[in-house]
Records
---
Amino acid sequence: MTAYREIRLKSRPSGLPKAENFELASVDLPAPGAGEVQVKNLWMTVDPYMRGRMNDVKSYSPPFALGKAMDGGAVGEVVASGDPGFKAGDLVQSGFGWREGFNAAAATVQKLDTMGLPPQTFLGAAGMPGLTAYAGLLKIAALKDGDVVFVSGAAGAVGSMVTQIAKAKGHTVIGSAGGADKIAFLKSIGVDHTIDYKAEKDLSAALTRAAPDGIDVYFDNVGGEHLEAALTAARPFARFALCGAISMYNATEMPAGPRNLVMMVGKQLRMEGFIVSSSWDMMPAFHRDLAQWVKEGKVTWKETVFEGIDKAPDAFLGLFRGENLGKMLVKLA
Amino acid sequence: MTAYREIRLKSRPSGLPKAENFELASVDLPAPGAGEVQVKNLWMTVDPYMRGRMNDVKSYSPPFALGKAMDGGAVGEVVASGDPGFKAGDLVQSGFGWREGFNAAAATVQKLDTMGLPPQTFLGAAGMPGLTAYAGLLKIAALKDGDVVFVSGAAGAVGSMVTQIAKAKGHTVIGSAGGADKIAFLKSIGVDHTIDYKAEKDLSAALTRAAPDGIDVYFDNVGGEHLEAALTAARPFARFALCGAISMYNATEMPAGPRNLVMMVGKQLRMEGFIVSSSWDMMPAFHRDLAQWVKEGKVTWKETVFEGIDKAPDAFLGLFRGENLGKMLVKLA
């Protein structure tokens, strides 16, 4: 038996989650059975979309069960294997996050080819957030030469990849983020115009100053006032990729939508929501492009790291306070 | 000299226009010069989009000038011609509405082939409103087999064509309109489920009852609460064609947008605004299909007619009180 700790959902949050919605527990795992592997997790991810799974509502991913370990992306190492396809020491990726280790059917974990990158990159720049940026820009927003691109949440895991992919493809990029550190980071990765939304009273005016001729693409990570500003600044036929709305995930009442949505008619705008799981087929192309961009020094990333499974709820809550620069991660071993 | 009356914009309305924003004037026209025609208008159209042109703001069509006749679609008869391409008695279509007659360069009017239909049809079912319905459904909403279609303003000039085109193509159609007469009309043209929005307290609940399995396409003519209901009822990957938002055209303050816009992400919805002038190239295909549908008895239309140029402002204002069943027209001769 080996003891592993895990984080369970103790109660469903209303509004912003609190520490008492989570509980730390320990489980003793036997050796893996035939066809199973035992994995010790090295890294786990916390992501804004997980907030939705804490509610008991039907959505694109099922709600977390009360009293059980939550799940999410993780990278780990096989420590014992009952399956001929895996051996101790193999690096694997799985959906069994929020726990130090687990036993699972071999078919539910994937061997990880790190392409020479640190393994936790596959929870961020080279993983789900990176593919989200890539698919959102190239497929949903149908990025084309000359487009001026506006990104909100631009210093986050997805946003910082959006800005860099757009820059690598030669676009003018306007990035919005909150606070001097994030703005400095955006400048360091070559964003053309930055907006510190915490320092701006009128986001529409700030965006119009940054993009006096308007924007062609908006990659929306936050919703709310940013979306309203983007509608105002949009050029005719602009395309909006709606990736998420972190400003609304903890809302207990439905917030009003953009007051200027009607602009979509006269400007002939397109707005499309998407989730990354509809674009897994783009992963090989993304990894090919990413390898090239990393080699050319065009794409880099930041990580904000909490250490220890007991800190995972703090890392998660930090997302909603904007505490992460780049990818928010929890180091488990 | 021949005297013709016309309606001029006297002052710019704030909110709902009033009679005093318009003035009736008379002009004496000489015989047409070389290369010109003199046209006596038979019919003119009033359309909701004209409200936007009464404001002094940049939009997809320029604002009406104060103290001058407004313009808009009209069908008329050439009464005198200084151009070899036209002769007295020719039926023509033009953008010189809101007046009983005019002189204009021959190149600015088009001869009208009525395809055996009454000429005023080309201001409605067979004209701009019909093409709006056709392009919005087929191109913008990318209608495909099996789609469940929801249309607001379903008894109006555009909406009644949307419902009938969707029915002609074999779809289940839910139409919303206000009042018993309009609902009876919708039933008479084969709409599967009708919603009298004036009689419903909760539009989302009404739509969910009408479409328990959800909708795939929403053709939006009104905005506001209807858009919110459509977001709630939308199936994954539903497409919304945003044609206009008559509920907002007279708003003096920007109304709040749909509170549930964030549903676009999880349901992966697409929303696209459009104006018909981007789809003139579809007119020949539309006329071919329309001729066939009329022959098969699948498409019909209603007209609400005011008589005399002096009644044109009343006809226009009636649009915002929902007084029209089908196309609102002014008969001028």
---
Amino acid sequence: MTLISLDLNEIYKLAYDAMKSNGCDEANAKALAQIIYSAERDGSHSHGLFRVPGYVKALRSGKVNGKAKPIVESLTSSVIRVKGGNCFAPLAQKIGLKKLVAVTSELGIGLLSLTEIHHFAALWPEVEYLAENKLVGIACTAYMPSVAPAGGKKPFFGTNPIAFSYPIPGEDPIVYDMATAAMAQGEVQLAARDGKRVPAGTGLDINGELTDDPKKILKGVLLPFGGYKGSAIALMVELLAAGVTGEQFSYEAKENDNGDGGPPQGGQLIIAISPKLIAGKNWVKHSKDFVARLSAIDGVRVPGKRRHQNRLNNGPRKINADLIETIKSLLV
Amino acid sequence: MTLISLDLNEIYKLAYDAMKSNGCDEANAKALAQIIYSAERDGSHSHGLFRVPGYVKALRSGKVNGKAKPIVESLTSSVIRVKGGNCFAPLAQKIGLKKLVAVTSELGIGLLSLTEIHHFAALWPEVEYLAENKLVGIACTAYMPSVAPAGGKKPFFGTNPIAFSYPIPGEDPIVYDMATAAMAQGEVQLAARDGKRVPAGTGLDINGELTDDPKKILKGVLLPFGGYKGSAIALMVELLAAGVTGEQFSYEAKENDNGDGGPPQGGQLIIAISPKLIAGKNWVKHSKDFVARLSAIDGVRVPGKRRHQNRLNNGPRKINADLIETIKSLLV
């Protein structure tokens, strides 16, 4: 695999140009380019430029509206809904999260329901934004059926990621974002592309047998992480992201998708909580002491640390040369 | 192990008498007896009468106040706090949940923070109550350090259970309640008592080595379910139950506990969400269709089904004879 160095600005521009020249207006292109830039900056390659060809497919097929103007509604004083009008998720998030911060900073808890969006990115940017505003964040989205519920052998759940953040004012927040699949779909795709094996337990082949070949798993089914308990978390994500928002469950997303390879329509649910309003004055010290204790345990890493360290490097990033060529060929 | 049949009423009365004769007033004794009765009725033995000796120890040592009168406060229009005054959790829950239902049914999302409580029971009764009121429920509590974060070998997290419920009007709700430990502490204790082995991966012995002997794990440390992803869920539970409520983290609970063997002081956080207000009119059919599809998958069981089936049986329950003798010896 040949790697090429790109500056962070070049990464942003490449993503922006790909969106702009395929039908996105300024607002949509900027929101998406920012998300791709952040992913590459933090080392989340499976959610960076790797996603651009899929985004372009969705624009070209007309499934995604690159000029969509999301509509914000207050369903109650604590609940905001943003109807994306079939935009990519980042623009709807950008608009909704700002309002979610305002609501939660006043009421202690708030909920953001995103509908008519197409989510194809990581979820940590959403919850990290909440943490930067001194709020706890929980975000969930469903996707296309690719994971078998515990006991089953057929795809039903999406890879159903859940992201969580906890603010530590003056320090990096605790942030994680993980598929409830044993391995994220994007990681399995990268392993397949690079000819690597994956750990046993990642998934089943088309006959329902365990395999460590990512190509066979992509034709078969992923397993949830952690057996029936992980399956229960995947179920929660599915019900929050689609049941509560009223958007499509993973199986509906598949049934109604045009199969262009881009992200299907779906929903996202984001909960924000203010520890300041609930725990009271001592919450910052209390939280800092906790992180100090956790970090001091031999062998333990605080979630989010690696990304935050990657971010300190402003230098160029190594990007797959074939991917850059592919994206350049999509500029029209 | 000798088993004795007890009617459900006899189970309730045994629990009630144990509480009443050890310093509980009427309200505290009733709330606790109801929780123990529900656990035995549904087959959750590790949270039923098995817990009574521990409850009594906490009353006798004075750690728990059996006559506590919990205080309810509205921190904001969406956030309720109940200060338990060192009661057992069920009484504080009973008072707080009623208000949480009212708030959430109006505002779409609500949060209940329980502090100064002693939680020693299952969490499904809390979230099932929310589901019976057509709300989604998420509940978390921390405990004493007994689980090593992924990568570590020393206890830091509690068994940190998370419970989730989703209402399906006209049908049984989806409900689960699980420790984020590979196995609940109560289950390990039962296995140790009954001389059984536990699955590999449940925990480490005192030297940090894997073992399937529950007695060695009780002296060593439990592992989280599902590796680093399960550890991330355990971390979320710890931060919600103690960080957001401002109550004791698991390690603080241990440091400040009197070691009487009863439940330490801690917090509990409960979130409720109204799908009706957020998803809109079609939510009931949408949710029913989802459960029908999930149930139809070969080998898959919908969480909560077994408990709800056990509940249909009004007959007597088989209880460990030694346990009954122990509890009777605690009646004064």
